[in-house]
Amino acid sequence: MGKIQTPYRYDFVGSFLRPQALKEAKAKYLDGEISKEDFDKVVNEEITKVVAKQKELGFHIITDGEFRRTFWHLDFMWGFEGVAHEATGNGVRFNDELAILDDTYLVGKLRAKVHPFVEYFKFLKQFEDENTVAKYTIPAPAQTFQQMIIPANFETTRKFYETNDEIIEDIGKAYQNVIRQFYDAGCRNLQFDDCTWGAIVGDAAKQRYQRLGIELDDVKAQLLKVNNLALEGKPEDMVITSHICRGNYHSTYFTSGPYDSVADYVFAKENVDALFLEYDDERSGGFSPLRKISANKKVVLGLITTKSPVLEDKEKIIARIHEAAKYVPLDRLCLSPQCGFASCEIGNKLTEEQQWDKLKLVKEIAKEVWG
């Protein structure tokens, strides 16, 4: 177990479709038909099953499928001091659908406390064995920073922080604390999920920030700063990776654009051990920005889509891997889906069986390419 680290040659981002039993239990819990204890029992049972399935398919990295969360990012933020949330029916417009999200905002200075996700990790860790290690996924520090400075939150945040640099400092320190909590609980593989880089690529982002009177390069510098601050002092034997995509909600997306405009920042200078990169369709552009990847990073090519049940053509994926290898050596490349199967509990538009077929294909291709 100690020799296995993320990323593996065949890997995945983290979230899985919620099983029907979990959906039904959640509905009953929210309606007051079952207790929190009964609901948690179902969650634990379903996590046990999804871990068993990952092992059955021969994967060496295991996650809890994010089964304890409603949202891939917001639930984690609620675990900090100074953060509150409420369900108001508001949301974020994706390509052709409104993603309903809890309003999440500051009610005081953001500070670390005993984070509930660490206990969630401990439940997952019990399933590690000589063939598998547990990976836990949390939103990137930049994601928390962005959440607190969106237009709807900006004035509220300014009640507690006069400048962005001040909140960046507190977010960085809070993440350092939580990273240590995970480490002390036995976590050696942590993944930042980060849509902020995907949200600022392309012309739409440039126009959006210009209307706000903000220079895009300033935004990039702040995203890099908060992520790297959180990584300062991380234990040497802890692997921290980052997953970047352009939004994934019910098989829709938030934005489009190639990596060219952010490569000098996140590819070259972010101090993570590997990057999981969305590359499942033309919205992500070409591989040439990969030449900016620093020599100490691995790259996980997200060439298999979770947004559609259609299985990719194996030979075309293999050809794309070798195309990427023109910019990053093949031995530093890995393969995965471009994102999770259920970033939010609504999940993407495919069945559980189709989900597993996607992972089988990832493994089959990786075995053929890397042996």
CATH class: Alpha Beta
Q: What name is given to the CATH topology? A: TIM Barrel
For the biggest β-sheet, the strand order reads 7-8-9-10-11-12
How many helices? The count is 13
Mean pLDDT: 94
Integer tally of domains: 1
CATH architectural label: Alpha-Beta Barrel
Span between N and C termini? 20 Å
Tell me the fraction of residues in β-strands, as a range.
15-25%
Q: How would you describe what is shown here?
A:
The chain is α/β, with parallel strands linked by helices and 371 residues long. It has a single domain (20-370), classed as TIM Barrel, CATH 3.20.20.210. The chain is 41% helix and 16% strand. It has 13 helices and twelve strands. It has helices at 20-30, 36-56, 74-77, 116-125, 141-149, 151-158, 164-184, 196-199, 202-211, 216-231, 263-269, 314-324, 352-370, and strands at residues 61-62, 81-86, 91-93, 98-100, 103-111, 133-134, 136-139, 189-194, 239-244, 274-278, 298-304, 333-337. The strands form four sheets. A six-stranded parallel β-sheet has the order 7-8-9-10-11-12. A hairpin with a 4-residue loop joins β3 and β4. The chain is globular and about 55 Å long.
What is this structure's SSE topology?
Blueprint: H1 20-30, H2 36-56, E1 61-62, H3 74-77, E2 81-86, E3 91-93, E4 98-100, E5 103-111, H4 116-125, E6 133-134, E7 136-139, H5 141-149, H6 151-158, H7 164-184, E8 189-194, H8 196-199, H9 202-211, H10 216-231, E9 239-244, H11 263-269, E10 274-278, E11 298-304, H12 314-324, E12 333-337, H13 352-370
Parallel strand pairs: 1-6, 7-8, 8-9, 9-10, 10-11, 11-12
Antiparallel strand pairs: 2-5, 3-4
